[in-house]
Amino acid sequence: MPARPLCHVDELNEGSARGFALDRPGRDSMFLVKHEGMVHGYRNDCPHWPGSPMVWRRDGYLNRDATRIVCSGHAAEFEIASGRCTLGPCLGRSLTPVRLEIDAQGWVLAVIDAVETTHGD
């Protein structure tokens, strides 16, 4: 599976999120969150309404205190480390994770197969 470079790990601040347009220019198909020193990647797709993006503004994936991922359309909240919904209409379901690798130079790479990149976002 090809690995797509996203950014350098030092470009992600602790407690921040950043979206990436892998499928179509202008629409983030995935996002990264740096939490407790770890980088987590998820598809920009709410499990409550598949195909619905999580944010209404650029990189606005987290709640105010950066402790949960939030879907701005449905007010669902998700654990950062697991992607599991803990509040809202998709309770118990999870975000779709994106497999990540960090290379020896510190670049965050998304390991994406052909099925994922044609997700239909």
Automatic annotation (TrEMBL):
Domain Rieske: start-end pairs: 4-108
InterPro entries documented for this protein: Rieske_2Fe-2S, Rieske_2Fe-2S_sf
Keyword annotations from UniProtKB, A to Z: 2Fe-2S, Iron, Iron-sulfur, Metal-binding
Transmembrane parts of this sequence: none
Protein name: Rieske 2Fe-2S domain-containing protein
Pfam families linked to this entry: Rieske
Gene3D superfamilies linked to this entry: Rieske [2Fe-2S] iron-sulphur domain
Iron is among the record's keywords: yes
